[in-house]
Amino acid sequence: MPPDVMLEGEPATQAETSTTYAAHLQMPRQEQDISRTPSQDGVSGGPTATAQEPLEADDAGSFENDSALGDTDDSSERTSLFSEIMKYREENGRRYHGYKDGSYLLPNDETEQNRLDLNHHVFTMVNKGRGGGLYRAPIDKPARVLDVGTGTGIWVMDFGDAHKESHIIGIDLSPIQPTWVTPNVEFLVDDAEDEWIGQKYDYIHIRMLAGAVKDWQGLLQKAYNHLNPGGWLECTEFEVWIKSYNDTLHNAPDIKKWQEGLQEAANKFGRTMEVAVNLEGWLKEAGFEDVVEEKTVVPSSPWAKDKEMKTIGAYQLMNMLDAASSYGQAHFTRVLGWSREEYAVLNAKVRTQLKDRSLQLYSNLYTVYGRKPKPPKTTPDAEAAE
């Protein structure tokens, strides 16, 4: 049972739920607020997170010219890299990115794109309130915004619609974003772990990159260096471990096996899944101030009695049923050496256990944001002393 919430639940029955490119790669493309649990370390000078209400289980019911990261005019390199980008890898019935092949183990096919958009919907429901569900940091009309690991670009497009005053850039390894976008939005194909070159930003957004980044502290330091003074960085990640609200995870041995295998594979691959719980410390190490950690319990199926949380759980279940394959298949087959058939058996068992509402499964969602300090104001006395 999570230490920060009290459990009051009853057994439940099982429910069935069923761009443009960076300059060197250019081609033409034109409810109620759910509160959070405060950090145990406290907050220094920033907004304060509030405690989340306990969840109660329900016993029945359904449920281009400006690259963010780099610039070169070498046409032969551009042609070569464009060819690399569009040459996808087909493996075990899934499609994976071609640019820097093998550096990211999740697919980019239509199934995964639909899951990413569904995942975005879950985040907007969980974060409903400040920022229209799109952000938690106390930003105010940021002129330049960067979304790292933009995926389908849905967050960028929603942010662009809500903030006409902002210019928003989304970067990703895969060119899977829409062709036609509003004038204040652009998409670039690039690797966030490469050197960052270019203008600075007022707000940088990073979401769901656990298992995709080799050097998190290096990435966050780059973000810090490319923020304007007073600018905000916001990171959102699920904790890697699925938990049980009523301490019945022992009844889901295949979920436990899947989680342990995923973490083992990610560590061997050199891109850890254990990110969420470290974000607050990493932001502080990078130099951010007013760092806030918000932790939210997100049901993994529609087991909660509260109507809004039940709805979130229903959507999250659909997300996780697809995520089991998206996150697991390449990790288990490429890294751990499983056969496609072996993983299919485990995946089927995991999906069955995810649907079991009596387990009251949930994940902790961490949102951590911090501000780059502004330079100290120069007083008349200090100027005179100089």
UniProtKB/TrEMBL annotation:
GO terms for molecular function: methyltransferase activity. SUPFAM superfamilies: S-adenosyl-L-methionine-dependent methyltransferases (SSF53335). Residues 35-51 have a biased composition (Polar residues). GO terms for biological process: methylation. Residues 1-78 are annotated as: Disordered. It holds the Pfam family Methyltransf_23. InterPro entries: SAM-dependent_MTases_sf. Keywords: Methyltransferase, Transferase. This is Putative methyltransferase. It comes from Hyaloscypha bicolor E. The lineage of its organism: Eukaryota, Fungi, Dikarya, Ascomycota, Pezizomycotina.
